[in-house]
Design brief:
This protein is of the alpha/beta class. The chain is built from nine helices and ten strands. The structure holds ligand C2E and magnesium ion (3 copies).
C-alpha cells in the first residue's frame, strides 16, 4: 500500500507539473495577442528628490489588463515572457508606449522604462530603439532605461557596448535592484550608468536592522564616490525617509510618495 501511495504521489506531482506547463503555454499565447488587443498598460510611479520633494522622473511599470483575470502584475507574466521570445515584443511595446506618452501627454519629467536582461541578446535592439526615438521625435534625456546586474552575466563586453550605444542616443541608465545580484566595483566604474537603485529589500527593515542600515550607507557612499545618484526603492513611511535623508541618499521611490498609477492620473 505504501508503495502504491508513493506512486500515486508521483502521478499527482507529474500532473501538477503538466498543468503548470500547459498554463505557461496558454499565457505565452495570450501574451502574444495581448499587444494587438491593447491589453498592456504602463503605470507610472514618481522618483522623488529627497531634499526638495520634487519628482525628477517616473518609472514606467507594465500591467496586463487581462479580459478575465483583471489587472495582472508584471511578476506574474514577465518571467514567463522571458522564457520565450515574447519578451522582445513586450520590451518594444513598453519602449514605444513610453515614447508615445512623451510625445502625446504633457509630462514634464523623463520616463524610465525597464529592460529585461534577455533583450540584450536581441541583435535588433539598438536599431529599433533608434528608429523609435526618431519616429516619435524624442528629445535627448526624456527617456531613461533601468537594467539589472544580471544583464552583464553572459557577456560583460557586449552588454557594456550596448549600454554605451544607449548613452550615445541620449538615454541615461539606472542600475536597478542594486545589491541583490552580482555586483563588482569594476563593473560600476565601467558602466555608463548615472543612477543606482538600492533594492527594496534593504530599505524594508532599515529602521530596525543595523546590517541593512550599514549596507545602505555603504552603497550611498560608494555611489557618491563614483559620481552616481542613488535611488532608495520601496520607501513606505516617514521614518525610513528620515533615515535615508540623514544618510544623504538623494532620491527615493515608494508607496510613501505614491503607488504606481495610470498615466491619466498625471495629466490634466
Ligand atoms: P522594479 O523595476 O524593481 O520596479 C519596482 C517595483 O517595486 C514595482 O513593482 C513597484 O510597484 C514596486 N514598489 C514601488 N514602491 C514600493 C513600495 O513602497 N513597497 C512595495 N512593496 N513595492 C513597491 P511592479 O510594478 O509589480 O513590478 C515588478 C517588476 O516587474 C519590476 O521591478 C520590473 O523588474 C518588472 N517590470 C515591470 N515593468 C516592466 C517592463 O515594462 N519590462 C520589464 N522587462 N520588466 C518590467
Ligand atoms: Mg525598475
Ligand atoms: Mg527595482
Ligand atoms: Mg525588481
Amino acid at each position: 500500500a505504501a508503495k502504491n501511495a508513493g506512486k500515486s504521489q508521483i502521478v499527482v506531482y507529474d500532473m501538477a507539473l503538466q498543468e503548470e506547463a500547459v498554463s505557461r503555454i496558454n499565457i505565452q499565447k495570450e501574451l502574444q495577442q495581448a499587444i494587438n488587443n491593447q491589453e498592456l498598460v504602463l503605470y507610472l510611479q514618481p522618483i522623488v528628490d529627497i531634499s526638495s520633494g520634487l519628482t525628477v522622473s517616473y518609472e514606467a511599470l507594465m500591467r496586463w489588463n487581462h479580459p478575465e483575470k483583471g489587472l495582472v502584475p508584471p511578476d506574474l507574466f514577465i518571467p514567463i515572457a522571458e522564457s520565450c521570445n515574447v519578451i522582445f515584443e513586450l520590451g518594444y511595446w513598453a519602449f514605444e508606449e513610453c515614447s508615445r506618452i512623451i510625445r502625446d501627454e504633457n509630462i514634464d519629467v523623463p520616463l524610465s522604462v525597464n529592460l529585461s536582461p534577455k533583450q540584450f541578446r536581441d541583435p535588433n535592439l539598438i536599431d529599433r530603439v533608434k528608429s523609435t526615438l526618431t519616429q516619435y521625435r524624442i528629445p535627448e534625456g526624456s527617456i531613461e532605461i533601468e537594467i539589472t546586474e544580471s544583464s552583464f552575466i553572459e557577456d560583460i563586453e557586449s552588454a557594456l557596448s550596448i549600454m554605451n550605444e544607449f548613452k550615445e542616443c541620449g538615454i541615461s541608465i539606472s542600475l536597478d535592484d542594486f545589491g541583490t545580484g552580482y555586483s563588482s566595483l569594476t563593473l560600476l566604474q565601467r558602466l555608463p550608468a548615472v543612477k543606482l537603485k538600492i533594492d527594496r529589500s534593504f530599505i524594508q527593515d532599515i529602521i530596525t536592522n543595523d546590517r541593512d542600515k550599514n549596507i545602505v550607507q555603504g552603497i550611498v557612499w560608494t555611489a557618491q564616490s563614483l559620481g552616481l545618484s542613488v535611488v532608495a526603492e520601496g520607501i513606505e513611511n516617514q521614518e525610513q525617509l528620515s533615515f535615508l535623508r540623514e544618510m544623504k541618499c538623494n532620491l527615493g521611490q515608494g508607496y510613501f510618495f505614491s503607488k504606481p498609477l495610470p498615466v491619466s492620473h498625471y495629466i490634466n
